[in-house]
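Key result, reporting period 2: structure in, sequence out.
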């Protein structure tokens, strides 16, 4: 494989504002400017494709009743989230490799990594579709939901896993473009995806515009409509040569060495996120023991509590690109500066959102339920989640900076041990042994966030992550 390629966009003088924004060289110049250039489209993507979609989607689903809300949120925050973690791990590995390849000016290497990641996504997609066809009832039953929720939710689980190629490839494609420094294109595509998904759900859930009224199945099919549209657009960008990364047919031939390189970088962040995920899944199950209303409150609270991270995590993602490209170009000092700039911006924004979430927590809950018991439990949950956003602002930047540097082993160990040895035992002790109920689970998650951030920050302070690039596997 050739070491370097001069793409068409590099040979011709780009004059449009969009092209200059998309193709900016982030290995030089103002870091704050680079962070803004990378982060604004990422945040806008998250606002439009995440926050806006989540709120309207939850409102549409709430019209189907509490059982449907619980079925959808439990599925999305547990089963779908489990597979999403695997995809995110692969996307982090891909983004890190591509960012460093771009920083080293090895553009053909970046193309090859992208092609192999797409191939790996196709394999995973086929596996999940088969799993959904065979074990949808068993998978939802694991979550300790009521028989009513199980009856409503099984068709949704089956369709979500059958249509999994949507969320898999959207995340993979976004990681490829983000690693190359192009965050503007994913934003434009997210706009299209969100509009198509919400329109599809509105039509297919309630039978609008002459469509059949499919209820909860319409939720999954509506999301699928938007995802298919976004995949077609992103494929045109990647395979059409209009991006800094240009995937060609020969890049899709299986290359075990490159796949291994991606997986070596992918599994530690995937396992790290799975640690947090397991806590969420276990607590969802425990909420079922406290009654259906407690589980509904927890389900809605999970959605509400995700709004601030959806906005701020993309900012941390921009830090990953800046760190990866800085280390790829040999500038350790610039990588440190990227972390400091990222912390200043993410903390300021996330702490402001924490205040908003706390102050307006009951107003937000009343958008989706009028049940006073659900609101009371959800209000306590959002109080602790707002407090958790304070340490998580640091955690997001630390996590993504280390990912950009290719140094994820120690943070993975910290996260898993924190989940298994602190969050889960503390949650069980407070909720059951001390009789605190749901409040005990909320406190355990806050303590876990605080401790995990402290230990990860201590690892970042050692500076060893700046040398991780010398140990990272490279495509051959």
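The corresponding designed sequence is given below.
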């Amino acid at each position: 494989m050739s070491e370097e390629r001069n793409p068409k966009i590099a040979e011709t003088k780009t004059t449009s504002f969009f092209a200059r924004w998309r193709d900016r060289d982030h290995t030089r110049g103002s870091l704050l400017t680079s962070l803004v250039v990378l982060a604004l489209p990422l945040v806008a993507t998250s606002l439009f494709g995440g926050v806006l979609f989540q709120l309207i989607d939850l409102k549409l689903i709430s019209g189907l009743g509490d059982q449907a809300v619980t079925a959808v949120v439990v599925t999305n925050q547990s089963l779908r989230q489990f597979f999403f973690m695997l995809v995110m791990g692969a996307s982090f590995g891909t983004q890190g490799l591509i960012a460093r390849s771009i920083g080293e000016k090895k553009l053909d290497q970046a193309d090859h990594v992208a092609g192999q990641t797409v191939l790996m996504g196709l394999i995973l997609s086929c596996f999940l579709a088969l799993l959904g066809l065979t074990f949808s009832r068993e998978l939802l039953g694991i979550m300790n939901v009521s028989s009513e929720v199980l009856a409503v939710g099984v068709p949704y689980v089956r369709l979500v896993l059958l249509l999994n190629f949507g969320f898999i490839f959207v995340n993979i494609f976004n990681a490829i473009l983000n690693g190359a420094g192009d965050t503007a294109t994913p934003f434009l595509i997210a706009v299209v995806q969100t509009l198509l998904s919400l329109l599809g759900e509105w039509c297919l859930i309630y039978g609008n515009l002459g469509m059949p009224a499919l209820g909860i199945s319409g939720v999954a099919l509506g999301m699928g409509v938007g995802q298919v549209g976004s995949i077609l657009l992103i494929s045109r960008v990647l395979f059409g040569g209009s991006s800094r990364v240009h995937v060609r047919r020969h890049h899709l031939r299986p290359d075990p060495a490159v796949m291994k390189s991606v997986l070596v970088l992918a599994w530690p962040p995937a396992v790290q996120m799975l640690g947090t995920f397991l806590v969420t899944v276990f607590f969802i199950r425990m909420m079922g023991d406290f009654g259906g209303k407690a589980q509904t409150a927890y389900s809605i609270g999970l959605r509400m509590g995700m709004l601030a991270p959806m906005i701020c995590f993309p900012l941390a993602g921009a830090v990953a690109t800046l760190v990866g490209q800085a280390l790829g170009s040999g500038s350790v000092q610039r990588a440190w500066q990227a972390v400091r700039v990222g912390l200043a911006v993410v903390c300021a924004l996330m702490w402001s959102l924490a205040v908003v979430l706390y102050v307006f927590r009951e107003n937000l809950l009343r958008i989706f339920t009028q049940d006073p018991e659900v609101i009371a439990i959800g209000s306590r949950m959002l109080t602790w989640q707002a407090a958790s956003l304070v340490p998580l602002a640091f955690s997001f930047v630390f996590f993504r900076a280390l990912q950009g540097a290719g140094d994820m082993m120690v943070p993975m160990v910290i996260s898993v041990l924190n989940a298994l040895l602190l969050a889960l035992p503390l949650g069980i002790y407070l909720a059951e042994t001390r009789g605190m109920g749901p409040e005990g689970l909320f406190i355990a998650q806050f303590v876990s966030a605080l401790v995990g951030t402290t230990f990860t920050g201590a690892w970042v302070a050692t500076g060893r992550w700046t040398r991780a690039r010398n140990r990272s596997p490279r495509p051959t």
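Residues 16 and 22 are 10 Å apart (CA to CA). The mean pLDDT is 82. This case is discussed further under Risks and Mitigation.
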